Amino acid sequence: MDLGVNSTSRRCLRWSLPPLVNPPPHPAQLLQEAEGTSEHTAREIQEHFCQAEFLEFAQSQHKMYSVAAAVSNVSVAQHDVTYDPQASWLKFHLGISRYALYSRDDPAVLQLLRDMQSMAVVSADYTQDEKALKGACDCTQVVKPSGHHLKLALKMRNFAKAMFKPMRQQRDDQTPEDVFYFVDFQRHNAEIAAFHLDRVLDFRRVPPVAGRLLNITEEVLQVTLNEDLRSVFFTSPANNTCFFAKCLYVCKTEYAVCGSPDLLEGSLSAYLPGLSIAPRVSIASPFTRSYTFAGREEWEVNPFYCDTLKQMYPYNSGNRLLNIIDMSVFDFLTGNMDRHHYEIFTRFGDEGFLLHLDNARGFGKHSHDEMSILAPLTQCCLIKRSTLLRLQLLARPAFRLSDVMRESLQADPLRPILTEPHLLALDRRLQKVLRAVQRCVRRLGEAEVVTRDFVKVTAGPQTATAPGRAR
């Protein structure tokens, strides 16, 4: 993410969009206070990592692996674990405000990306939501149990925590036409690309994500204390190290992921502050899809659905509906149809931004543009002025979205992240978003469609048009 001073990406990110929607946050608009968070974090670390039972078990496990490694003439590294109050992950947590997860060019985020790419892994486990699905976790730390694809929680030597999603598909693979969106593979490169796109769009609502080539023997198997996780490792007929998930769905050896022979690439997503520090709530999207083979939701059959939605709390005032529309634009650009819930920090109330989490089902089909994802925009005919200005900027030849994304993604060590057809699809989809806005403006007038940020939303009758063929 270290871009040159004159790079297209950096000039785009620094472009002044009057009026900017992110004034410097007042301390009351920050998610956490530095002093209280540091003390709480240090206390949690001390309680979790300084118990005699933990130390004894960790030492015994390391001794066991050391003996086994010695027989195989392999060395097992030992890592010092140190709490650093200036750690990049802690600075990232402290920088979260009412407006975004981080500020533009936040040096802590750039350092966090580098740390996730290179820092030693000292612990590996299943994620809390996967444990919740099995009924084996502290569910006070889970917003909403979700997902059935393998993902791991990794801890670094400075107590940074990241979610690892392994590679399941090659870059050139597309989602087969007969596969439903809710059983599609989760793609690690989609998580990486979504973070960069969210940053380029100036939303900054996706936690930092970096690609990493992981040695799953040394950095998962040898550091995990979870017997369930250790038990699903095996050696394939090709002598590659593999593992699979123990869960309710596709959790068999034929669905395993394998290294080559131990190296496996994946995405590392930075964890948000724990729920005990920064509570979040998960809310069903008003434009959720039917997760059945033949079901249809009201918004899919009623073109005036948004008129009713605008009369309902919390979409009848404030910015919630505008943020839903922002998210639909983001999801349309990535092709992600799997947005059934959204999360917000409770501290910021109704005016807080929506977190753009779980983006691994994006970038599945570069040859198809799913126009139904844009329903919040096309039915409600509203968009933030700041969002529109950014989209118009990225449609200019000097700041073409595909060019900015191509350059931004070059900073990731797993490059290329997206194939050229996926990058070009971004330009095509961006034009469709702008045409949808133009149609709304022609019918209702710019004053009714383009809305200033952080103001009341006014609901007008019959804002939607009947579904038509997309241009």
From TrEMBL:
Domain of life: Eukaryota
GO cellular component, one term: Golgi apparatus
Entry annotated with the keyword Glycoprotein: yes
Record: residues binding Mn(2+): 358
One record GO biological process: enamel mineralization
Cell location: Golgi apparatus
FAM20 C-terminal domain mapped to chain residues: 233-449
Iron found in the keyword field: no
Family matches, as InterPro entries: FAM20, FAM20_C
Active site residues per record: 338
Pfam families the record matches: Fam20C
GO molecular function: ATP binding; metal ion binding; protein serine/threonine kinase activator activity
Positions contributing to ATP binding: 165, 269-272, 343, 358
UniProt keyword annotations, A-Z: ATP-binding, Disulfide bond, Glycoprotein, Golgi apparatus, Manganese, Metal-binding, Nucleotide-binding
Cofactor: Mn(2+)
Family: Belongs to the FAM20 family.
Protein name: FAM20A golgi associated secretory pathway pseudokinase
Organism listed in the record: Salarias fasciatus (Jewelled blenny)
Gene this chain is encoded by: fam20a
